């Protein structure tokens, strides 16, 4: 495809630009991989955050980096916005399409290209499902450490874009700590390598900037990830407490004892009730809170740590401790936790999954304030969270058929984020900003901070076509960009544009 | 070669910060004499200095305690050194949250002293005595513990930088888990002072281990060394570090560090000793040279990386090229030293670059005599760098006039 339009008189109309991109896609891809039919387009209208919906202008399902690059080039030439999409499980509307734009779906790029045990590396395409990387590595005694609860479905490309975490990131870190290199298509349609197979590639850590950028800097077409050795010993214990205060105190005591468990997850009474209803995980009867604590590592080390964890939980008021004695029991304990989001559907017709972070030591206070918020508003809040690192996932329950219930829930959900910010935390620990939270960014960062972040955006995507409208509340103007056209109404432009 | 500044520029710099002196003999930046050295006491002063520098078109090099100031290429010009060593406070240690907030001029050792009171540590080794936080972040310097804990890149959770135009910007925050906005810290780590001046940093901490055991195994061939490293790394021993000492002919060692709870230390050491074989020795003391780079003053300093399967080949070539090597064999990050003869250096770098490149890695000439760096040039010092165009675009955004440590970094940026 040609150069981006430079002559302002040749600024294309979106509809015609889109038609040109569709034409290019049809040249490149088999017919079933180019979707322009309205009914089929609608299947892609939202991601995991279903209350934002936009039917995309065009959906393409490329097979490789070359095709991605060609489509992006076509978009660049016609100033058409594009959005990458993996499995569409994102919870912040990051993969929300543009009506005048292209949705580039990676679901046909699902090859695990290499698993190299000797080097502790796997090279995978972006559409590969997270858990499949672990499955491919397990026969060699390895796994892929970042384990979002959605790992059965979510894609590695989506994980990179969101810097996905999981229950085990307390000890093992996030996606960004496990990716060494990526093949990447810039918003100009160039294919570049970021990082190297070995650590510490020289130069700016562009990969580090791309990870967590929610698809706004370009599209990842392959990732080289680090594989982690499976531990010799894993101990998973389910601990029942009368209150979240006790469970929180036990968590603090464990951290203070110098133990970094693989995971410490907390659920409150309402979340337990929901999980019980949904998956019959048989959590301790009458518990006001449970902790799921997992220790892993060298067997003798784990044994020492376990003895201490057991004692610290007891000293902080646990009334029941159930140690999983085999993988089946362990899976059952985790099932209760990992199904918690979906499970609240059993006890409430509608709910909002919130994602905020607080310094872990603020937990008791924030929990108390959340209870107060809930009592004052009459909106029920179930709590599931990564207690070890202060990442809260309050589930705000409501019934959309009741008038005003949705708004009341939104209000409580927003107030919870305010609490996180007030306590020096973050508006998102793993679900990302997307469209949903961009308005909160100014609460965490001032104009200079945001302006500086957008300098990165301007370096990568001065034309603002890669997932525009996400993350930042207002776009930064990147100086002179040839042929730039922004937010102009198609009709207004019609008289100016030439037909391509 | 000394930068001479206009009177007005000098006055303006002095107005921005109380402590400004002309650059002296001790202030050379890799041989370049700076016009002025400013020692700001606050972020506001750093900001005022950079704003002034922008107004007067002055080139600026940030400095901590100068332990790695000569790393990278020689800057094209240094009108002003911004020395942050007076900003040396450890601002806040929250033991319960496992975080520390510190000024950039704080020494790594001071940070360790403060957090040790809560039985914690910042899991970055002090590879150069006296190193500051700012310098450690700017060079992403790392030692043995990177195997398990990663580097400053992985441990940094929040950062405040002063941009080339004087604007103060922060990213990240005080919580470990945070995906709000771009991770600017990643760009700044390892940017060698070319994107901005780091003024504050927040890190996640780790608990201090109750015991440490080193299991060392003598090796005499590259294959033996690699085999020992593989045995430990692919085992379930969870080592904190796996080092290769390969700095004297015929006399190498693989050194494994185990850290953890008191009652498990000996048992875990015994497991590793068994893996390594009868010749291994267990100690409660670190072996000589632990966490130190292998080079002497005036030698050429290399950083070599490769994937694990390439370790044997890389060590082989290093020995053949008379490059003394020490480093994290387990992580695939090694450091090399060689004498000051330029011809040998160029040849050795070329050979090593070939073998490291074949195994997914790179070679960077971190430091060396002026002639060596000059002869090698940007491509020879930093090696081929993919995505260099994109890096230039980042640089152009952050420092459009190329005044921050100009010429020091990849591609002569
Ligand atoms: C039940 C449930 C549980 C969850 N649990 C967790 C959890 O524990 N931890 C966690 O971190 N998240 C969790 N999530 C959120 C979500 O699964 C993650 O954000 C995941 O990483 C998204 O992957 P995806 O493939 O579905 O991406 P999508 O939703 O398709 O896309 C997400 C973002 O990534 C971008 N993107 C996708 N592919 C690429 C690519 N190749 N290159 C560039 N950008 C791309 C998109 O543009 C979008 O901005 C959960 C979601 C659900 C529904």
Automatic annotation (TrEMBL), chain A:
InterPro entries: FAD-bd_oxidored_4_C (IPR004113), FAD-bd_PCMH (IPR016166), FAD-bd_PCMH-like_sf (IPR036318), FAD-bd_PCMH_sub2 (IPR016169), FAD-linked_Oxase-like_C (IPR016164), FAD-linked_OxidoTrans_Type4 (IPR051914), Oxid_FAD_bind_N (IPR006094), Vanillyl_alc_oxidase_C-sub2 (IPR016171). Its EC number is 1.1.99.14. The keyword Flavoprotein applies. Transmembrane segments: none annotated. GO terms for molecular function: FAD binding; glycolate dehydrogenase activity. It comes from the Bacteria. Keywords: FAD, Flavoprotein, Oxidoreductase. It holds the Pfam family FAD-oxidase_C. Its cofactor is FAD. SUPFAM superfamilies: FAD-binding/transporter-associated domain-like, FAD-linked oxidases, C-terminal domain. Residues 52-230 form the FAD-binding PCMH-type domain. It is an enzyme of class 1 (oxidoreductase). The keyword Oxidoreductase applies. This is Glycolate dehydrogenase, subunit GlcD. It comes from uncultured Nocardioidaceae bacterium.
């Amino acid at each position: 495809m040609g150069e981006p339009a430079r002559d302002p008189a040749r600024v294309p109309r979106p509809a015609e630009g889109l038609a040109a991109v569709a034409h290019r896609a049809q040249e490149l891809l088999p017919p079933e991989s180019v979707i322009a039919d309205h009914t089929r387009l609608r299947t892609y209208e939202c991601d995991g955050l279903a209350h934002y919906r936009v039917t995309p202008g065009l959906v393409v399902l490329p097979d490789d980096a070359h095709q991605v690059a060609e489509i992006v080039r076509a978009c660049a030439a016609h100033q058409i916005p594009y959005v990458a999409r993996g499995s569409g499980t994102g919870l912040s509307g990051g993969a929300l399409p543009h009506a005048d734009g292209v949705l580039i779906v990676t679901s046909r790029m699902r090859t695990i290209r290499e698993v190299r045990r000797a080097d502790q590396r796997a090279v995978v395409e972006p559409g590969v499902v997270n858990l499949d990387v672990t499955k491919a590595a397990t026969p060699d005694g390895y796994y892929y450490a970042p384990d979002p609860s959605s790992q059965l479905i979510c894609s590695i490309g989506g994980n990179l874009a969101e810097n996905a975490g999981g229950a085990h990131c307390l000890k093992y870190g996030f996606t960004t700590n496990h990716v060494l290199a990526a093949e990447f298509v810039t918003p100009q349609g160039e294919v570049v390598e970021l990082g190297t197979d070995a650590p510490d590639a020289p130069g700016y850590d562009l990969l580090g900037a791309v990870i967590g950028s929610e698809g706004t800097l370009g599209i990842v077409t392959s990732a080289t990830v680090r594989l982690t050795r499976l531990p010799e010993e894993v101990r998973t214990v389910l601990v029942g407490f009368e209150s979240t205060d006790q469970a929180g105190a036990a968590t603090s005591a464990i951290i203070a004892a110098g133990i970094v468990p693989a995971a410490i997850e907390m659920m409150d009474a309402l979340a337990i009730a929901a999980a019980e209803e949904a998956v019959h995980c048989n959590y301790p009867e009458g518990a006001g809170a449970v902790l799921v604590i997992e220790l892993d590592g060298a067997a003798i080390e784990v044994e020492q740590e376990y003895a201490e964890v057991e004692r610290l939980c007891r000293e902080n008021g646990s009334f029941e401790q159930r140690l999983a004695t085999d993988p089946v029991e362990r899976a059952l304990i985790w099932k209760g936790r990992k199904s918690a989001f979906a499970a609240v559907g059993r006890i409430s017709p509608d709910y909002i999954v919130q994602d905020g972070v607080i310094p872990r030591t603020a937990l008791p206070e924030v929990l108390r304030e959340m209870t107060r918020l809930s009592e004052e508003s009459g909106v029920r809040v179930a709590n599931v969270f990564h207690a070890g690192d202060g990442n809260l996932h309050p589930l705000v329950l409501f019934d959309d058929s009741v008038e005003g219930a949705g708004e009341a829930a939104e209000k409580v959900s927003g107030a919870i984020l305010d609490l996180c910010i007030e306590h020096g935390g973050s508006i998102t620990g793993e679900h990302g900003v997307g469209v949903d939270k961009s308005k909160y960014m100014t609460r965490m960062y001032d104009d200079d901070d945001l302006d500086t972040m957008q300098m990165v955006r301007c370096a990568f995507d001065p034309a603002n076509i890669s997932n525009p409208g996400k993350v930042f509340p207002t776009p930064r103007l990147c100086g002179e960009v040839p042929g730039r056209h922004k937010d102009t109404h198609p009709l207004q432009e019609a008289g100016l544009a030439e037909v391509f | 070669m000394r930068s001479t500044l206009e009177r007005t520029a000098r006055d303006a710099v002095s107005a921005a910060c109380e402590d400004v002196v002309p650059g002296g003999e001790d202030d050379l930046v890799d041989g370049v004499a700076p016009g002025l050295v400013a020692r700001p006491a606050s972020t506001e002063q750093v900001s005022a200095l950079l704003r002034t520098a922008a107004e007067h078109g002055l080139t600026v090099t940030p400095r901590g305690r100068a332990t790695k100031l000569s790393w990278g290429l020689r800057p094209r010009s240094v009108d002003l050194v911004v020395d942050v060593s007076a900003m040396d406070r450890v601002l806040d240690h929250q033991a319960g949250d496992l975080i520390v907030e510190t000024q950039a001029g704080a020494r790594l050792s001071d940070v360790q002293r403060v957090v040790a009171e809560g039985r914690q540590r910042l899991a970055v080794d002090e590879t150069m005595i006296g190193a500051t936080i700012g310098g450690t972040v700017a060079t992403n310097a790392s030692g043995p513990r990177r195997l398990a804990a990663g580097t400053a890149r992985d441990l940094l959770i929040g950062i405040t930088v002063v941009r080339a135009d004087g604007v103060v910007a922060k990213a990240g925050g005080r919580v470990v888990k945070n995906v709000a906005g771009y991770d600017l810290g990643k760009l700044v780590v390892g940017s060698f002072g070319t994107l901005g001046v780091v003024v504050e940093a927040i890190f996640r901490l780790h608990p201090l281990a109750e015991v440490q055991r080193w299991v060392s195994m003598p090796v005499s061939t590259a294959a033996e060394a690699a085999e020992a490293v593989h045995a430990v790394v692919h085992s379930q021993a969870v080592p904190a570090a796996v080092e290769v000492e390969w700095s004297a002919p015929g006399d190498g060692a693989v050194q494994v560090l185990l850290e953890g709870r008191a009652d498990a230390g000996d048992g875990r050491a015994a497991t590793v000793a068994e893996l390594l074989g009868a010749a291994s020795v267990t100690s409660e003391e670190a072996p000589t040279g632990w966490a130190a780079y292998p080079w002497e003053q005036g030698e050429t300093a290399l950083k070599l990386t490769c994937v694990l399967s390439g370790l044997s080949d890389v060590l082989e070539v290093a020995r053949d090229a008379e490059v003394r090597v020490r480093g994290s064999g387990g992580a695939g990050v090694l450091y090399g030293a060689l004498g000051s003869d330029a011809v040998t250096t160029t040849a050795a770098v070329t050979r090593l670059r070939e073998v490291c490149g074949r195994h997914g890695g790179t070679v960077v000439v971190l430091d060396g005599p002026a002639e060596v760096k000059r002869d090698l040039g940007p491509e020879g010092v930093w090696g081929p760098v993919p995505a260099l165009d994109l890096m230039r675009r980042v640089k152009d955004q952050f420092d459009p006039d190329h005044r921050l440590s100009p010429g020091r970094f990849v591609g002569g940026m």
